Amino acid sequence: SRRSSGDPCKAARSAYDRCFNRWYLETYVKKMEPWKKEDCGAEWEEYQACFTKRLEGTKIEQLVK
Question: Which region is the signal sequence (predicted)?
Answer without folding.
Answer: none
